[in-house]
Amino acid sequence: MYKDLGRNQANYTALSPLSFLRKAATVHPQRLAVIHGERRLDWAQVYQRCRRLASALQRMGIGKGDTVAALLPNTPAMIELHYGPAMLGAVLNTLNTRLDAQTLAFMLDHGEARIVFSDREFAPLMERALALCERPPQVIDVDDVEIEEGAFLGQIEYEALLASGDPEFVCELPADEWEAITLNYTSGTTGDPKGVVYHHRGAYLNAVANIIDWGMPQHPVYLWTLPMFHCNGWCFPWTMAAVAGTQVCLRRFDRKQVLELMREHAVSHYCGAPVIHAALAAAPEHSKQGLVGVKGQVAGAAPPAAVLEEMERMGVEITHVYGLTEVYGPASICQPQAEWAQLPIAERAELNSRQGVACLLQEDMQVLDPDTLQPVPWDGASVGEIMFRGNITMQGYLKNPRATAEAFAGGWFHTGDLAVVYANGAVKIRDRSKDVIISGGENISSLELEDVLCRHPAVLAAAVVAKPDPKWGETPCAFIELKETLELADEDALAHCRQHLAGFKVPRRFVFGPLPRTATGKVQKFTLRDAAKELADLD
């Protein structure tokens, strides 16, 4: 009976975040869109600049399916690159600014980048990477007004490129919402990085999910503490167009500057790794005054109770989200319940530490037995692997059908994160499968140990890895980063752990110093594993 009712232009449009930009510029043309130092752009200007960018790239021969790379910090150009190439059906590959030249060269070659936009600050790094490329892309320099040094590598600068483009360029939505929109490479800690491909549909839906799940109002003020090269900034470059908000750019995280910008521009939202929130909480008291109605998202492990308590006192409300590059960043959320407000801070912290439930527009998140793909009991104890399925999941890994097939085995995306499910359906990670420490046949969660260590008032952050041991196979080795001006002796750390942990879980070695991190604030555990092996060799 319904079979003769088909799609047509009147009743079907491919989902694409390009729609958000056009509407923001049409409905709110003079509303402030971008703040970068002394520079200000409204939504009409951003839309025009993106159309100029698309036109200029088209004149350079860029078209559907071509890769355009970017080695940029959080600047207006990076925002515009989330739209300009997509208007042509091209694919944006955002590059991690903290990677080495060899890894960047691999990504540029593997992604077949035709053009790379490079900030002057990273010119030496880009120059080394280009020298290693088999097919070096054409360089377009971005001369950001916020820096004074850095060489030019290309034949044209970004603003000159835009000036050559047509401000009336006609932007068309993709014919198929499944078309690729961006390419994001994973860290590659166990081999070459894998290229995660996003589609227009997923980018659109996750941008909307950010609004719904976080309860974002129209016209928020968002501070870019999260790198846009990381999962495309969790899709917030597109989210901010959907709500016609204001984006405050930030080249790099600086605690003092962040707090100043929050006050100056009445920032309402920001995102970041746990280390970002811990750093803000540990700031001098005088610098934390005057924050009103700020909401922050934290991904991965939730901050320790002491950090949450201090953030609350500062006037910052924290929401815990969880995800991976393969699911566009945040794909689950721990939604605080009204009754939690009456609980002691330690209990609230434990509840907030859970990864929660799937975001509204991600179809499902389950904790399954990795062998049988059957759900584990909701008892808070049975361990399985977190798996996702739904529209906010990557197309797959570029040029890597084997890895794609393995990731999607059984019709689920396998995260590699081990977790339990509580009676209310909330998920909590116990560990990465590769991070579980097996000591004398007993499984030890590194996350549990890290949580205990972070409860000590002198500890800013902690990471625990396995250290080879001739008797037990491996034992926990704790790497600890202390708060400024504070000290902690081995014996005090040991006593603290013994107070909160079973004897076999207590770390046998403590190492104090800054933790190695990625550009997104995640601790590089592979580096710490190598350090632990070296310590074992010296024992």
UniProtKB/TrEMBL annotation:
Gene Ontology molecular function, alphabetical: ligase activity
Key words, A-Z: Fatty acid metabolism, Ligase, Lipid metabolism
GO biological process entries: fatty acid metabolic process
Occurrences of domain AMP-binding enzyme C-terminal (ranges): 448-522
SUPFAM superfamilies xrefs: Acetyl-CoA synthetase-like (SSF56801)
Domain AMP-dependent synthetase/ligase intervals: 22-398
Presence of the UniProt keyword Phosphoprotein in the record: no
CDD domains, A to Z: ttLC_FACS_AEE21_like
Presence of keyword Lipid metabolism: yes
Family of the protein in this entry: Belongs to the ATP-dependent AMP-binding enzyme family.
The protein's name in its UniProt record: Acyl-CoA synthetase
Provenance organism: Stenotrophomonas terrae
